[in-house]
Amino acid sequence: MRAHSTSRSTSHLLIPFAACSAEAWLPTLHALPPDSFKSLGQLLQGMKLVENDTQNPESLSPPHERALARALGLATLQTPDGLMPWAASDAAQQLQAGHDKAWAWITPCHWAMGHLHATLSDPAVLQLPESASRALLAIMQPYFETDGITLHYLAAGRWLAEGELFRGLPTASLDRVMARNVDAWLPGSAQARPLRRLQNEIQMLLYIHPFNDAREMQRQLLVNSFWISGTGALPAKFGEALTPTLSQGERAQVSAPRSLAQAVFKEDWAGYAQAWATLDAGEIAGLLARQRAGETVRLTLCGEHSAQTFETHRAGLWTRISSLLSPLRTLDVLKQL
Questions:
Q1: How many CA atoms lie within 13 A of 66 on its CB side?
Q2: Whole-structure pTM value
Q3: Domain-by-domain residue ranges, the chain?
Q4: Using an 8 Å Cβ cutoff, are 308 and 301 in contact?
Q5: Going by fewer Cβ within 10 Å, which terminus of the chain is more open, N or C?
Q6: At the top level of its lineage, which domain of life is listed (predicted)?
Q7: Are 229 and 107 in contact, with CB atoms under 8 Å apart?
């Protein structure tokens, strides 16, 4: 997903997977050197909690996506789960599409088939070049068109799909599904029945298609399915803010680095620790410098069931003394996510 903002004045750093449910997460943090969160701790001391969004860990939209969608004006705290209209936003910006249509992201992917269930592999491991992705889209397009869906190329690993089937259809984010059993996350409503049939048809098509024969000969992972996410239409009241007229400066105001997420999906805990060190010395230190220079900045820390947003707080002398005597412990904050 792209990270950009409708705000000119407030720098906002949003950190996905600052916490996660993996057993190795907490031991990894406990093993970090004492000064690993130096910048983060100092940043938090000058902030106050302004928003706390806690949902069920099985929600379709993870906390970081909900928080980012709100920061971009795409959603509110009342937006239904699984209806963050990422694809519609992309269509408005990249295709200059009207705001009245419904869209979805289509991600070519590999389902690892086990004895009991299928697990969704990280789509990035497919390493699809643009030429192969466009060829695959052309192969699949006629099947989608049967259900009134038009595919549009967006990037090698992600396409846009236009169709009324996606209007009001909740779908699970890839960040919820990767490395997990897909059955628990597939849309199960009557509205999604044509899409489940379409998915079965595509799986059978790809099983015997020369496209995958060529990949197999090159010892590449097969593309054997796709994932639907980012569904819905743009609410009319967000129309003006979502046009492609935003300047690059405005778009740069919200940053959502993916380094922690990438390490979590790889179960690379040494990499996770290094990603935290890099963030603390880089983006977080930069945000701290802006706060010390008098700017109002925002920080959103996200786990798998909660996102907490902090904002610069101009405290009085007594409050500053109290915070020094009873500092906010960074690890305690992360455990709440």
A1: 30
A2: 0.87
A3: 86-234
A4: yes
A5: C
A6: Bacteria
A7: yes
